[in-house]
């Protein structure tokens, strides 16, 4: 059997963390078993589905590099097929027309509430003669739910799950206006797409019993189900915006790498011994559903950030340079010029070891690509006191006479200057850092000076002196 999985989001919002993990688990499971992974956009709710949400879902999946096989299937294009199945069930006597008015259904719900009963359809049209139908009511089609015994699902994560059939009612599969319901559409699409495994959040577990009802009524083989626990925030509550970013693309903008995000999502509810760093190839090799836990996972920003820092240190420098240049352009409104990119490339090794996200990396690297004069931040400005600027003016004279503009040569000159002045190295290094970077923190100052070059270094010192 060829394993076929699917990710089937509703385009009523962005691709959130839980959806991204569901897509990842489906992708990994299919790739591990040499199968296929399909994407289905469940856009039958035309009022709430938006093009913006569709693009965000597609963009999020592409960013995470979760490629799907074939073209994406849009559920809204298959409504006739869904309706045909409903009518087939009607003709075979496994479904019936229900002529209840909205008022009758509302009263049914209110009566159940008053009597403390579960709110379920009471089956009043299940065996009733259609000749009794009231005039002017467009009937819905309801499936005949099994009345006795129980429905059992062997879930690949939750284990054996049972529901007494008396708890299932005759659900609507085709509305009075002829449109199919979600429960019917999902089943028909899964059958037609050849889906063998349905891997999704455990908030869909109750839906599985209703969907199985349709599979069995049609005499179709149902897929294997695997319902994975939801993701909670660090406080144990259901993950929401108050816990931070929820949309996958927000994490991209915050500077997380897709490989770090996938590695982190993989470890939310799945494990392979004590392994924490799991590259994509190993994830495909190791992933299977037997290692998915049954408890809700907790999303921890600190752990994700720590993991991202690891992947930043391993990332290709040319890729990081392009990312940093793009982010600097967004911050400043101008692309780094050729000289700026050259300095960024030279400084990337020192910068990446101190950054945890691409955003942080770009902010820390910004001074290399900045045009003169450099605008100091508040902390840097405090370091540029009149006394400090006087020191920098004297230091500039020593630097102009320095024939060796290597990192070691610069260090030797600056240390000799500090010794001659009878001051600690930090007394000159800190205002020097403020003048050259506009900040009180940076990579090693001698590394910075070597990368900036003598002309740019001396120019920035002169700018700081002139700005007072």
Mean pLDDT: 93
Broad shape: elongated
Alpha-carbon distance between the termini?
Answer: 76 Å
Strand order of the largest sheet: 1-2-3
Report the radius of gyration as a whole number of Å.
32 Å
Low-confidence stretches: none
Number of strands: 12
Helical run tally: 19
The helix content, as a percent range, equals 40-55%
Determine the strand fraction and express it as a percent band: 5-15%
Class from secondary-structure proportions: mainly alpha
User: Largest beta sheet, briefly?
Assistant: 3 strands, parallel
Protein model, in words:
By secondary structure, this protein is mostly helical. Helices cover 49% and strands 10% of the residues. It has 19 helices and twelve strands. The protein has helices spanning 17-32, 51-63, 79-91, 102-114, 182-192, 205-218, 248-253, 258-266, 280-286, 301-314, 317-332, 338-352, 358-369, 378-383, 386-400, 407-421, 425-437, 445-452, 454-466, and strands spanning 4-7, 36-41, 73-74, 95-98, 140-143, 150-155, 159-164, 172-174, 197-201, 224-228, 231-232, 297-298. The strands form five sheets. A three-stranded parallel β-sheet has the order 1-2-3, with helices on one face. Strands 4-5-8 form a three-stranded antiparallel β-sheet. Strand 6 (150-155) and strand 7 (159-164) form a beta hairpin. Helix 11 packs across helix 13. It is elongated. The mean pLDDT is 93.
